[in-house]
Design goal:
Involved in the recovery of exogenous heme iron. Extracts iron from heme while preserving the protoporphyrin ring intact. By secondary structure, this protein is an alpha+beta fold. It has one domain. The protein has seven helices and eleven strands. The structure holds protoporphyrin IX containing FE.
Length: 364
């Protein structure tokens, strides 16, 4: 029954918010060349999201008169918001020549460069706008995206989407969940306020961008059937952590700090090409990112194999931090044998609006 506020917060909900169990992620291409259409869409979306986050329909469910079409599709009518948040992102295309908004471009908002091991599919990449609905009730999350998509008709069309089940990261005070490889994910995530200020929230850019963040999304497919045949010793070396407890290979408890210098029999206990050795801030000039990903499945692939993976979502105040990490991971991570990055996007998520205003209002 929990409801998060939409207006008057320092940041958009759905970033620092305690991570909910399910997500629906959707991207859009703007089809109207008019900035005023984008403006109206952001205003209508903001008003609707405020309603949805309270658990209210966005208009009539059963309108008067038998020939009227309902404004709200109805499948969440009577359900509680279940901690729903909807986070709006603006892609690089919003600031290209089309809309006259180039001068307002957030300083680091540009398409991601090609990265090592990229196997991106065009149909799962890019977008001018993103919406991420997160909720503890999958029907509530789906309803939000469905009705917001409907409102966009004539202005923006859908581009790609991922339905995520099961959070695959942890925030402060949350137990660490597991990703579909069976390992605890989110142990060493950003959790402290000081880390949010330093690595997540934009501070040193135009006034309108302050308190926002950059959302980086990657659809990462896993070869889970190959993974499931891999011996446990190798699986643990791939991540540099134990499977059941999630402890670093140099420790006993999940919370133990990994010791990347520890050696046994002439080789490092945590392999230098393990996922955590490459990703850890100790080995990356201090870089940290907020991870807020979800497990996903698309059912079966064309060969009848399980088709599943991680909807990786990160929030950073400088996309270069993600690029630095993924350049290292994409180059030599032992995990690469079992994953492919097939989808990708980058969006700027502005701060939350004050009451009576809408997300991105300062652009117009
Ligand atoms: C840590 C899984 C992709 C960045 C971890 C951990 C696991 C994991 C199990 C250890 C527990 C933890 O501290 O959270 C995965 C899987 C991925 C994936 C299954 C792909 C399917 C990525 C990507 C990035 C990334 C693409 C960034 C570019 C990190 C970071 C850590 C981490 C920064 C913390 C390392 C540390 O400080 O010890 N990941 N990850 N991961 N991962 Fe990933």
């Amino acid at each position: 029954t929990r409801s998060h506020p939409f207006y008057g917060q320092a940041h958009q909900a759905g970033i620092e918010t305690e991570q909910q169990r399910h997500t629906v992620y959707m991207t859009f291409d703007l089809t109207s060349p008019l900035a005023s259409d984008l403006q109206v869409l952001l205003a209508r979306w903001s008003g609707a999201i405020a309603q949805l986050m309270k658990g209210l329909p966005i208009g009539s469910v059963e309108p008067d008169g038998t020939s009227a079409v309902a404004q709200d599709t109805g499948e969440a009518y009577g359900l509680s918001p279940a901690s729903l948040t909807v986070t709006v992102g603006l892609g690089p295309g919003v600031f290209d020549d089309r809309f006259g908004l180039a001068a307002k471009r957030p300083k680091h908002l540009a398409p991601l460069p090609d990265l090592p091991s990229d196997q991106l599919q065009k149909a799962l990449t890019g977008g001018d706008l993103s919406l991420q609905a997160c909720s503890d009730d999958p029907q509530v999350a789906y309803h939000a995206i469905r009705d917001l998509t409907r409102m966009a008709r004539g202005v923006a069309q859908t581009r790609w989407t991922v339905l995520g089940f099961g959070r695959a990261s942890a925030g402060k005070g949350q137990t660490t969940p597991r990703n579909l490889m069976g390992f605890k994910d989110g142990t060493r995530n950003i959790k402290e306020q000081s880390e949010f200020s330093e690595f997540v929230w934009v501070g040193d850019d135009q006034a309108w961008t302050r308190g926002g963040s950059y959302q980086i999304v990657r659809k990462i497919q896993m070869n889970i059937e190959t993974w499931d045949a891999d011996p446990i010793g190798d699986q643990q070396d791939v991540f540099g952590r134990t499977k059941a407890v999630g402890a670093p290979l140099t420790g006993k408890r999940e919370s133990d700090v990994p010791d990347f210098a520890a050696h046994r029999g002439g080789s490092a206990v945590i392999p230098p090409t393990s996922h955590v050795a490459l990703a850890a801030h100790e080995n990356n000039g201090g870089v940290k990112i907020l991870r807020r990903g979800y497990n996903y499945t698309d059912g079966l692939n064309q060969y009848g194999l399980l088709d599943a993976g991680l909807l990786f979502l990160a929030y950073v105040n400088d996309p270069q931090h993600f690029i630095t990490l993924q350049t290292r991971l994409g180059g030599s991570d032992r995990l690469n044998e079992y994953i492919q990055h097939i989808g990708s996007g980058i969006f700027f998520t502005p701060a939350a609006p004050r009451p009576g205003r809408f997300i991105g209002q300062e652009l117009f």
